[in-house]
Amino acid sequence: MIRDPEDPDLSWEDYEKLLAANPDRPFYVPGKTFIEQFYKAQERCDKYERRAQHHSDCTLGIYWTCEEDKTDE
User: Fold this and answer.
1) Which residue, 34, 27, 32, is CA-closest to 48?
2) Coil, helix or strand for 9?
3) Residue 23 contacts residue 50 (beta carbons within 8 Å)
4) Which of 2, 23, 34, 40 is the most exposed place for a label (fewest CB within 10 A)?
5) Residue 35 lies in a domain
């Protein structure tokens, strides 16, 4: 986990609360294949009733965001 230089003693529980308060924040997920990463990213986005969207970073890795579903119902 990357520590916040302003608050290096931030606990994992507090970090989870911080992430929950900001579902638009980009994130990385572990996984050897795209399918594994997608599954884990979608699990996280399901908490916010959103869909996982992948993006390429400058190292050719993949980061994820939880996008609001803009399809008409």
Assistant:
1) 27
2) coil
3) yes
4) 2
5) yes
